[in-house]
Amino acid sequence: MFAITGATGHLGRLVISALLKVTTPDRVLALARDPARTVDLASDGVEVRRFDYDAPADLAGSLVGVERLLLISSDDVGRRVEQHRAVIDAAVAAHVGFVAYTSVLHADTNPLSVAPSHRATEAMLLHSGIAHAVLRNGWYTENYLIGADAAIKHGVLLGSTGQGRISGAARADYADAAAAVLVAGPEVAGIQELAGDEAFTLSDVAAALAHASGRPVTYRDLPEADYALALEKGGVPAAFAVTMAGFSAGAAGGVLADGSHTLSRLIGRPTTSLREVVSSAIGRTSA
Length: 287
Prior knowledge:
15% strand, 2 domains, alpha/beta, two-stranded parallel sheet, Rossmann fold, 287 residues
């Protein structure tokens, strides 16, 4: 049985959809903190079990019968290591045979603030004795749709990435890769650096927004502190604005770029282009 944590999230749902294309619903288990949000999955024949990272005593019981588990990283970065430790311990106790974990691109050298918790989780998996694959996902191209409406309205996309290149891919690309890894199991154990086939800059994002909207959009690079302030003035909570600006500035050095094409090889097709993602979201078909 294949089990997916965070089954109600954007990535989790896409992974389940990908799995249902290659296996039957009775082989797929949705693990969710709030099963009430999975009515649609249950109606498709997918079993749903409650799975709360903050209730460690209950986790092993929810993994009974699971052969392969996708651990989608917690979005609570401050408590992520503790939560992941609980899941890994539960997987050991439940005799799960294989775990795939969604980490971050180049986690061993990545300077972004999200990387340390991913490195710690990778180390825990390594010492757990469970066969596992580390899916070091690059940035979701959809991340650059946040604030797209404002950029189109004002004709300016703000950031602190300079001309740093980003090998982004669509969330669905990463989901298809996770499903493929679960199906393949231990034969793809190890670290997989996953990223889009074509790297882009924020200037390219601005151009894609302009193409999709039919309105001029240019990229304006700002110092990190100024970008954080601009986000805050735009309504982003101060702490999150600082975090977002830090991510943008951290990408300037190219840490989110990767030319291995591992992702497209795993999914058996080219990754979704920046222009395709933007055009789909903005509502205009790419030329």
